[in-house]
Amino acid sequence: MDAPPTASAVEAVGLVKRYGATTAVDGLDLTVRPGTVTAVLGPNGAGKTTTIELCEGYRAPDAGRLRVLGLDPVADAAALRPRIGVMLQSGGVYPGVRAIEMLTHVARLHAHPLDVAELAERLGLASCGRTPYRRLSGGQRQRLALALAVVGRPELVFLDEPTAGLDPQARRATWELIGELRADGVTTVLSTHTMEEAEELADDVAIVDAGRVIARGTPAELCGGGGDVLRFAGRPGLDLVSLRQALPVGGDAAEPSPGSYVVTGDVDPRLLATVTAWCAQHGVLADRITTRRHTLEDVFLELTGKELRP
User: Fold this and answer.
1) What is the pTM of this model?
2) Burial class of residue 280 (count of CB atoms within 10 Å of its CB; 0-12, 13-18, 19+)
3) Which CATH code fits 227-293?
């Protein structure tokens, strides 16, 4: 079945997935632009893994509309699967098969695969190519999973924590490969807990929590254009209305967690002087005053909270 023309590589509208009384995905909307890298971020239990499994066709949604490359991932699975690559965190490889044999086997299933030897070399698999899968290290298994996902030259690839457990050299090689896929027009959807990775690679970011996309945009948009923030600690419950009134035009202040304050705006000597003067006038002994770029991690924690998730 040929896919109809589509402006989106992935389009999910009102997506719902339930497991008994638990709603893992709750009316989620997600759009992935063709030829881009989209990072899906979220705390544990947020629904991001289930969302990606729905897109891959491994699970069927209970409600909503989902199209991947213009096709229904479940009803059109036979037509869709040759066009997508999926990186699995575990399973899918026979324990006794050698790494290079598995990679060669998957390559032969596709009409125009990447060069197996070259891919193995760049991902550091050449030296362990004859090692049975069960004897590979965690990092080697991770790199093999990535190679298996991309060797068939997919139009769209789903990567689940692609650099988890990798050393800096392997992580950099993975980033370079993802960048080359984008340059070749391949669409990539990656799930990651590494904010640096999302900022480095992603054209678009979707932050998922409680089964919904709660924020989306480019990293620069989510970080407020890449501006700086001033942070300081003080007693909880300071008068933020008064502080905001004292700030230069365009400045703002928030208390994302008790006793931790964030001031945004043009962070310059004038803003720093204003904040310290306000603290002195209000009897606030400010502690740990710092200035730094407002990062994606800041945005993530402000939106999803700092409490650990089980």
Assistant:
1) 0.79
2) exposed
3) 3.30.70
